[in-house]
Amino acid sequence: MATMQEIETKAKAHAAARLALTNHVTLLNAEIEAVKQKRLKKLREAVATATETGDELLALVSESSELFKKPKSAVLHGIKLGFKKEKGRISFADEDQVLKLIRKHLPDLADVLIVTTEKPSKEAMNNLEAGQLKKIGVTVTADSDMAFISDPTSDVDKIVSALLKGASEAEAA
């Protein structure tokens, strides 16, 4: 078993390593932000131009439905355009009335058309005491102590995980 002195020494080394990592991530974020700021104006202009040309194209297609009878769509310069059937929307004002009418007119389909959901709420059960949970047949698992280390002052782990994931995906490709 380690001594508290050995654990403290390792904690100090780990804190120094995390500080170095945090500094690298901070520099990287500053560089990324600088590049974003450098490119932001042109990016906004490009978005505005693409939105404007898209709106103009959609207006032309909308007023030219006779050109899209058969086929109903076309691909021009890599842009698919034309007309397509919209997905219909189902709505009803009175849910209870629809349920009654399903049971009356389509009783054989009621099991398919009517959804009944009843299940215990784990969120609510988290507020119960162990004795109460036992009475209702609920078992609590994985509630023992386990060793951990964390840096409560830093979000660097999330950033590093994202960077490492991106790097490993790039290497795999």
How would you summarize what this structure contains?
With 173 residues, the chain is mostly helical.
Description of the structure:
The chain is mainly α. It is 58% helix and 5% strand. The protein is built from six helices and two strands; from the N terminus they run αββααααα.
Write the layout of secondary structure elements.
Blueprint (H helix, E strand, L loop, with lengths): L3 H59 L10 E4 L2 E4 L12 H11 L4 H4 L8 H4 L4 H6 L20 H17 L1
Antiparallel strand pairs: 1-2
GO molecular function, one term: double-stranded DNA binding
GO biological process, one term: DNA protection
- Protein structure class: mainly alpha
Mean pLDDT level: 87
Q: Report helical residue fraction.
A: 55-70%
Put simply, the count of helices is 6
Q: In what range is the share of β-strand residues?
A: under 5%
Extract low-pLDDT stretches.
Answer: none
Element-level helix/strand string: HEEHHHHH
Whole-number radius of gyration? 30 Å
The general outline is flat
> Roughly how many Å apart are the termini?
44 Å
Strand order of the largest sheet: 1-2
Please give the number of β-strands. Answer: 2
Strand count, sense and barrel status of the largest sheet are:
2 strands, antiparallel
